[in-house]
Amino acid sequence: MTQLTHYTSNFTKKQFPITIVCDNISNAPNIGSLFRTADAFGVEQLIFCGNDIPMGRKMTKTARATEKVVSFKIEENTLEVVSSLKQKGFQIIALEITSNSIPLHTFNYSDQSPIALVIGDENFGVSEEILKKCDHILHIEMFGQNSSMNVVQATSVALYELTKQIM
Fold it and tell me: Which of 22, 28, 78, 142 has minimal CB crowding within 10 Å?
């Protein structure tokens, strides 16, 4: 057995009809990790929404050059981005724990339209006004004492489940 490297692994490259909308995510290492996660799961685009999105050295160190291959843009207003994507026919899906969210693993994705996966601020999650615009709100079932995960870890879990259904 030989451990494979970036150059010797034979994964098939594939892109999925998924856009990640980041609602005020402002931690540079999280942003860098989101680039790596988006690349790993074949996400079409990352949209960072907010006033102060750090794209400097701390982000690029964590991204490990994936910011050069993943399509992204920075917008100021999350509500405008979500409304625009909804008008373009995207399914708007928030990853958040609410009183009416459903477990991620029970959600059946419809391949009739692309997905905009909305993920939220590291401290406060997806804002209430954005949640009201969503077609679906999904949560990851938790079995420990904590009621939340790091935003990048949660996004990775969600993308694994969604891309598994799309394949």
Answer: 142
What's 20-72 look like in SS3? EEEECCCCHHHHHHHHHHHHHCCEEEEEEECCCCCCCHHHHHHHCCHHHCCCE
132-146 in b/e form (b: 16+ CB < 10 A) is ebbeebbbbeeeeee
What's residue 11's pLDDT?
A: 85
Cα(145)–Cα(67) distance, integer angstroms: 34
Phi-psi region at 64: left, alpha or beta (left = phi > 0; alpha = psi -120 to 50): left
153: helix, strand or coil:
helix
Question: How would you classify residue 20: left for phi > 0, otherwise alpha for psi between -120 and 50, otherwise beta?
Answer: beta
CATH number for the domain formed by residue range(s) 16-166: 3.40.1280.10
**Does the model's pTM come out above 0.70?**
yes
Instruction: Fill in the amino acid letter for 135.
Output: D
Average pLDDT along the chain: 94
pLDDT tens-place string over residues 109-140: 878 899 999 999 988 999 999 999 999 999 99
